């Protein structure tokens, strides 16, 4: 509906130049008059830029480079936002209101230069560092960063020593060298300038500032800067003056803090004699001992300790000096603090202890030192993670190894978070295989602990299709039939995932009615999840077969009254699962096939060269198996048929079930990639997708007697995933059945 003006009201603040011209359509001109190829700068304050970026690409920390660098417009999107490319190669999207078109300096004007431009600097130029502490901290991000030791250089004049490829400057100033953003300095004289020119008097003054300490008139500032520079004589002189404040600040820091971070022990001793406040805090709440930890100054910490400084002091983030030393990776400072009695397990504002920080920084040496000092492994941070949980979440096996080797009590490995997750749950959920192995084998973790949803680590691994974790847990003895809060076992989860993946493939088909073009590929890719590439072993069907082959119960029903097989509309997979389970129950898993009974299996399986190892190398092109992998390189002709050996392939485990060794040779492709049980279900080689015309058992490849299967037997005996009828109506009926299965699963 239309709006009616009732009374005038005061509007908010606005930028006049940002208002549209009355009567002009936005689409009739480029935003801000910018075009592709224009050079642009950002001249607004950071807070304003961040506000204007809402809805126009947002703001990230990586965009700080844009505040001090000229970029080139490389695109204008459909929303009229501007895409700008910078010398670093990064491209960022901006609200056009943020950008200002840069003035291009003609070559004829280059001699005059433009203040702040990066191309104006040369080695040997005299430059003055920015006075504004907050501004220079902002400008230094991504350009060498800011260090507190750079504090004395503010406002000082230095000489350019080197210009880096990214235009950053290495400047000698105050007897030290630092890397600066070119926007953080201003040129005061060129390398070739003569003192006798028109500005000779000013240049002489600047040169004096280059080699002499600036006298600001503020004694407190002079004291802080002298302490930071380690100028003992000047500090002594200033301390003798009655109007100097030993605890005075410059740029938010005291002389004690500046000397502590830079390791000037002699100055610290002078200050301590003047009854300096060792617990004075800067704007971040950091005390002198925090600064010493940051600067890796163990000797300073010793002096401060003798001066009764609190080694457990906290800053505004509730970090102790130990937190800072761990985060900076200063091992010797960590040892010094612990030797002087620093508490090893205090928590910061996030609840993290130094142990948490050492794990995050992957500093196993510091982690070991903290544990030896009695750091508490069981303390949890604000997210409920203790040190073991944190290492499992981060996937840090070396830290987990250290923690497990120094656990004060073995049952800590099974401690739960508030949601019932143990370290093993977290490793299984995030597929951190090596961490899980350590918890299982070194930590003897309980494999069957359930979280608040009554899920075990095996439930989580199956749900996320983490095959290696599943195999690890099952082989370590995890119970396969534990039910979660919905009554589902891991096998329920595997088959539900398999069915959903089948349905997604069917739904992705553009036209299921076109059998000739759409049906064949889908049929080939749906058989037991074997349609994925050989390297893709994380299929739900593979996991389901593995669980069934290891004794998972096929008859357990969940709270919906469904057994695992009820969740699987794939008849071939159901048949395979039943067969695997039956063999496991009857003790037939791994038993010999009838064709092997008539042969001397020991003779046929041992290497024909060394007789020590079993045969495990397939020769090509003959397809015989005569030697072990160690002896095979020495064989030039097959020892069975005397044919020239052109290829040697080591026989690995079955790519489908990952439980048994591959034992059937597919012809004509010549691949051996599946065990007897899985091979009987295949129409195509799972490795190369070639049609299987003949199957040759392992024993036959070794020179024994066996029975070869042909595709005639396969086509008449095996049941495909979905029967392909000539009538399209039956096809659609099968699809509808699968869609109904999907609906049933969604309702659970």
What features would you describe in this structure?
- One of its GO terms (biological process) is endocytosis.
- The protein is an alpha+beta fold and 748 residues long.
- The chain has five domains: 16-105, SH3 type barrels (Roll), CATH 2.30.30; 117-211, SH3 type barrels; 217-343, Serine Threonine Protein Phosphatase 5, Tetratricopeptide repeat (Alpha Horseshoe), CATH 1.25.40.20; 490-588 and 723-728, no CATH class; 604-717, 2-Layer Sandwich (Herpes Virus-1).
- It is built from 29 helices and 19 strands.
Structural class: alpha+beta
Termini separation (Å)? 45 Å
Residue stretches low in confidence (pLDDT < 50, at least 5 long) are 25-29, 104-118, 193-204, 206-214, 510-538, 588-599, 710-729
E-strand count:
19
**CATH topology label of the largest domain:** Serine Threonine Protein Phosphatase 5, Tetratricopeptide repeat
Question: Which band does the percent of strand residues land in?
Answer: 5-15%
Query: Reading side by side through the largest sheet, how are the strands ordered?
Result: 4-3-2-1-5
CATH fourth-tier homologous superfamily of the largest domain: Ankyrin repeat-containing domain
Pfam families: Ank, Ank_2, SH3_15, zf-C3HC4_3
GO molecular function, one term: ligase activity
EC number: 2.3.2.27
Keywords: ANK repeat, Ligase, Metal-binding, Repeat, Transferase, Ubl conjugation pathway, Zinc, Zinc-finger
